[in-house]
């Protein structure tokens, strides 16, 4: 079972910052999940559509330019990273799961990803784009057929594995509380990987490991890695 650092190693470092990403790389995770949003003139790594919760700024990310965002403190003196800074820090060391939140002008995003692939900053194997917006995922996959996409859902609707297979998804990303043996069987029969969020407690790690899912997102990837050894 793969361990993904959720928003980087966000239990011990400010979420979605380069510090949290670096810590996850040092732990030796199987992948890192971060949230991608559009600001006025770039893509930045931040969870909320507002700056208020995770920085000392206010206002909508989408209405703010990068120069202004870069003046803000995202916790312990960290700045809000750009997508490019994230890709460069990772330098193809591990799988990056970019979750698209309020992410616009996808043509621009496609160009950035393509360029980073061409420059070998990241390999297609190490890139996984996920979203609750399945229309966006479909469009991204049409533009970049090599792209791995992960279909996010909060609950697990009826026939969700069949839906994800039709979407040509690589993986389904589901709330840990909704995974059950029937869903695991169905998704695996359709060739889909199953990743659950957000898993920090030993009992949940054990349950999901026994269900034979393929990966979990954890805020405390170091602890969670050690839990897996005892399940
Ligand atoms: O990608 C899994 C998980 O991160 C989705 O929920 O709110 O933490 O972005 P959220
Ligand atoms: Ca996320």
Polypeptide structure, described:
The protein is α/β, with parallel strands linked by helices and 231 residues long. The chain has a single domain, classed as Alpha-Beta Barrel (TIM Barrel). The protein contains nine helices and nine strands. The protein has helices at residues 18-27, 66-69, 83-90, 106-118, 134-143, 160-166, 181-189, 202-210, 221-229, and strands at residues 2-6, 31-38, 43-45, 95-100, 127-131, 148-153, 171-175, 193-197, 215-218. It has an eight-stranded parallel β-barrel with strand order 1-2-4-5-6-7-8-9, surrounded by five helices. Helix 7 links the parallel strand 7 and strand 8. Helix 1 runs parallel beside helix 3 (83-90). The radius of gyration is 17 Å and the shape is globular. The model has no long low-confidence stretch (mean pLDDT 97). Calcium ion is lined by residues 33, 35, 99. InterPro entries: GP_PDE_dom, PLC-like_Pdiesterase_TIM-brl. One of its GO terms (molecular function) is phosphoric diester hydrolase activity.
In short:
By secondary structure, the chain is of the alpha/beta class.
